[in-house]
Amino acid sequence: MIQPIIGFVGMTHLGLVSGISATERGFRVICFDQDADKARALKEGKLSVSEPQLNELVIKNKSQILFTHNVADLKKCDVVYVAPDIATDDFGKSDLAPIDVLLTLAFDAARDDAVIVVLSQVPPGFSRARVRSGRALYYQVETLIFGRAVERALYPERYIIGCADPEEALPVAYKIFLDVHDCPILKMRYESAELAKISINMCLVASVSTANTLAELCEKIGADWSEIIPALKLDRRIGQFSYLAPGLGIAGGNLERDLATVCNFADEFGTDSGVVKAWIANSKHRRDWPLRILHEVTLKKNAEAIVGVWGLAYKQDTHSIKNSQSIALLRAISDIQVRVFDPIVPATVVLNRDCVAATSELDACMGVDALVIMTPWPQFSKVSPTEIAKMMKGHIVIDPFKVLDAKACRNVGLEYFTLGVMN
After folding, report:
1. Cβ neighbours of residue 305 closer than 8 Å, sequence gap 6 or more
2. pTM, whole model, 2 decimals?
3. Which of 343-355 are b and which e, b meaning 16 or more Cβ less than 10 Å from the residue's Cβ?
4. The architecture CATH gives domain 198-285
5. Alpha-carbon distance 372 to 417, whole Å?
6. Cβ neighbours around 336 below 10 Å, total
């Protein structure tokens, strides 16, 4: 068979990154979205998401990709991925209506011999309930990470494929596309694959919760969590790639969705989810660490204090603010004046009438009593503590992720607070 043409339906983060990355592997790709304005903007190179390498790949492989809102173009595809981002509410519940619309569209628009693949994360039971007689439907687990999505799309560790019958061979066109990455392909029934995605995220949450729980203990007893991490990463049962850096709980929406899914199934079938509920509680507790420190060292002493905040995105290298800890902090201090700067996310997302949109990191420090660094953007680490101290009125720096050098901050008279060590 000649090189198959791959289609991606739904040009949000998942579909856009996956489609553009496929061109780097030498495939012709058709990226479809129902929104004509969005398709037109993408055709002009105006990407709706921010990811390292993404703009460069579009420019490099523009002859291999077609952005379109014409559903008839999907007839050209041998494999059609249905890949919209799945929105979740504040309780982690997924809104499956949009993917149902796009999956129906893909079935109706694609050729009868085309392979349809659900790439979006869906709950167990979703795929089997949508099988059509005589049509090839698969569920493929995606493991993209905001800020590292292109890297993950280009170099997957393995493919997890949900099938109606795992014993049957994959269609030729689909196999050709998967084989180009030269990684293991794990075939399993639909429900196992859907639960495998949740299982992966549960293990990540366990690592995050362990690190956060023990890092907080370090802050009270005089230990330093950063000294402990190397010992854990050298343990083969844990490993060098474990999520061991302390943070402000889980955010971004995907992990929260999976915890909610497990709790909901546990309630329905009478299984135990106590540890999962404990992880959720631990995440909420850790999320408010900057707020607790800010109140203790600044706000309870000065109700008129001005606070500078660096970062609005829930993590670096992404535009996403889904469940952002920074947004949660700003909501909690909505009655005081703040100066906010993020290199990508506009300050207009903050619903606080006393929020000033700063033009730079140092502008956000101008006249503030305390600076809180809520997103570890790499560029923040290049700002001189000396210049920060000159701009500030006060001397408090709250830096959960150790963006700045603690010693350098203290040397210029700043009182520095971070996670995992006694302050």
Report:
1. 298, 299, 336, 369, 370, 394
2. 0.79
3. bebebebbebeeb
4. Orthogonal Bundle (1.10)
5. 9
6. 20
Q: What is the CATH number of domain 288-417?
A: 3.40.50.720
**Token pair for residue 362?**
């140092």
Give the position of tokens 């007689």.
Answer: 133
Residue 129 CB-density burial (10 A; 0-12 exposed, 13-18 middle, 19+ buried): exposed
For 301-314, write each residue's pLDDT tens digit.
998 999 999 999 99
CA nearest to 137, candidates 119, 160, 116, 121: 116
Fold of 6-194: Rossmann fold (3.40.50)
**Do 73 and 43 meet the contact criterion of CB atoms below 8 Å apart?**
no
All residues at 6 or more sequence positions from 178 whose CB lies less than 8 Å from its CB, including other chains: 159, 161, 170, 185
Does residue 11 contact residue 33 with C-beta atoms inside 8 Å?
yes
Average pLDDT of the chain, as a whole number: 93
pLDDT at site 1: 63
What's the CA gap between 422 and 404, in Å, rounded?
A: 17
Q: What is the bridge-based pairing of β-strands 159-163 and 136-140?
A: antiparallel
Q: Region 115-122: what's the mean pLDDT? A: 96
Check pLDDT > 90 for residue 169: yes
- For the chain, first and last CA: distance in Å? 64
Residue with tokens 């399993």: 188
Domain boundaries, the chain: 6-194, 198-285, 288-417
The region that residue 125 occupies, defined by phi over 0 for left and psi between -120 and 50 for alpha, beta otherwise, is left
Instruction: Give the Cβ contact number of residue 408 at 10 Å.
Output: 14
Same fold, 6-194 and 198-285: no
pLDDT digits (tens, 9 = 90+) for 231-271: 999 999 888 888 888 999 989 888 899 899 999 989 999 98
User: Chain-centre distance of CA 373, in angstroms?
Assistant: 19
